[in-house]
Fold this protein.
Amino acid sequence: MANRPLVTLTTDFGLADPYAAAMKGVILRHCPDAEIVDISHQVPSHQVLSGAYILANAAPFFPPNTVHVVVVDPGVGTDRAILVGQFGDQLYVFPDNGIITFVKEAYPLRNLVEVRELGLLGVEEVASTFHGRDIFAPLVGYIFSGKPISRLGMMPDSYTLLDLPEPRGQEGEINGQVIHVDHFGNLITNITRKHMLQRWENLTQAGLEVYCQGRHVGPLQSTYGQVEPGRPLALMNSMGMLELAVNLGRFRDSFDAGFGADVSVRLSGEGQ
Amino acid sequence: MANRPLVTLTTDFGLADPYAAAMKGVILRHCPDAEIVDISHQVPSHQVLSGAYILANAAPFFPPNTVHVVVVDPGVGTDRAILVGQFGDQLYVFPDNGIITFVKEAYPLRNLVEVRELGLLGVEEVASTFHGRDIFAPLVGYIFSGKPISRLGMMPDSYTLLDLPEPRGQEGEINGQVIHVDHFGNLITNITRKHMLQRWENLTQAGLEVYCQGRHVGPLQSTYGQVEPGRPLALMNSMGMLELAVNLGRFRDSFDAGFGADVSVRLSGEGQ
Amino acid sequence: MANRPLVTLTTDFGLADPYAAAMKGVILRHCPDAEIVDISHQVPSHQVLSGAYILANAAPFFPPNTVHVVVVDPGVGTDRAILVGQFGDQLYVFPDNGIITFVKEAYPLRNLVEVRELGLLGVEEVASTFHGRDIFAPLVGYIFSGKPISRLGMMPDSYTLLDLPEPRGQEGEINGQVIHVDHFGNLITNITRKHMLQRWENLTQAGLEVYCQGRHVGPLQSTYGQVEPGRPLALMNSMGMLELAVNLGRFRDSFDAGFGADVSVRLSGEGQ
């Protein structure tokens, strides 16, 4: 256990409404010592893919045994399952809709339970539109009480993973696409360092050129300041993913490209 | 007392400026052990009604004796009073402008003081434009010091409540209006479960149909997924209020209706 | 030392992406007892001047020995230095780009080190695009471990301060400009109480009139409610800076004036 019960929240609730705070209140009622940290409440509404990306690039940095509560839950009130799982040294409470996909790719699953025994949570009434407050938050209290998770239900036969486009390509080329646009207007793609190293031994080798929607971005750089202000560049970012940026600018706006845009890496002299 | 001194903030300061953080700094100077949780800093500027709604749907979930500081305060620097009140098991510090209205409707008033003795707060200078930092924050320190609230001033003869439109209607019909638009584009109305049960015994009874600005929304549902994606629906939400939504969409945009829009519930065959 | 290790964050990361939370995770890995408070993650992208303003008007209110981590860092990955400095009773960790300017104007420098010995931070790998997570956050852990800051590097010969336009003017007049537009649409200028008192002994004296872009705003007031709703006004704000506002409205929109706009104060009868 961490020194303090540490909880994070990842939701698409936004920050204006009472939803996130109501969840925090309930968590603190059940576990007054909990330390609650926001990962994000600005996952785009109902966008499980964005939530999966944000979760996987923040949660693993927390101390072991942190409980990450994820409520991007377009299926609230339907019969989608609620899962509690341990991946690596972190614990996740999440709806079974694929939001765990990127965490699962990077960290081994150690334990997984489908929550069935709601009676153990000490909740009197469950609003069918706000499981975050009425189920997920009390679940945190249950987990920190030290009672075994195995009492909450059984390991499910399977659970949902997003069906993601795997980067592919002919010899000397990798083709992928944009899966996230960040606050700076940078485009993050599904082309990872692993994909690159499977094709080429050395990412700093001369001749690797990056294209977005067929338009030339430039060779791989290692940081933004390596090109002049206002110029585009590509780099392997701090999450190990291929990212397109404009130094001190916004790639999204300069290239008019966003979520889903085609991105390719080519050894120059080949392909186009 | 809760295990830790627990404070929440509800303001219209936004999150970009130094205002909310300056308040937190002062609270921590006066009470280094305080745990500070944001309810919202995105109450629309000067909108007391929105702030009242957000406060009432988050604050009551916190542990007993949490101190809720509310600074939606268009009258800052004028002679509007500053109040400290206990409603239910929570404590509220707020300007006397009606922001306590929905809390007061749902929880009994147990104690109320109009703050007059600013000398007790240990504050040297008060900026007439930032009482949040210079009066409300030190008040939190005073309250957690364990000194009696009664020393701060007298119980006022009266205090401000918002003059809200009460849902009304002829037999077989209730008419209300939209009092909040949430992050998902859902419209929340002032028609509560209580209003509905005063008119009809059973909210699941066949024939209850909901209209917005005269346009048909549909029968009462219990959760979003009961209609097809993109279709509108009405339900009694997790706060016990009639809500209009579009499954996986935005009712606000689909119906081009927002704050103040007319909403009615009718027993079909009656009215229109 | 404060009762608890207290850390604040000031960044231009926004709140949607995983960046701020990843930093918090790393800080908590290194210092599980840390209490982390956000000053702002909504500094406009790469805008060091805005960040400097926000930092200086929030950080100094925190308890002594709070560590303020600032990551508005357009030069990340270049050879700009990383500094740890004590100004007044607060500690600051920041890139050497001038973001400390307003803090330094108001509080005496007591200690300053340029961080060179990254080996002391126990970090295995540093992404050249995310020093916030890979250097600044571990630095917080080092500082709270109680080891001397002097081991991290030497005092630099000099450090960067923003080259700000100093308010100036002829007799009976001060000319300055807008350096920040806040959430309420208020304009904050670089004309301070100090500048005013150097020119005039008494800020409440009759005849001081404020102009924005040559347009008359009105005499100095002390709070918003002194003019009718919808009317413009000028006042010395809670940070001691000349501010232009509209009571219950947005000066920015009413006057169509923003960052960089000219503002002047004149003793009426003189000048225009």
About this structure: The first strand of chain A starts at residue 6 and ends at 11. DSSP finds six helices and 13 strands in chain A.
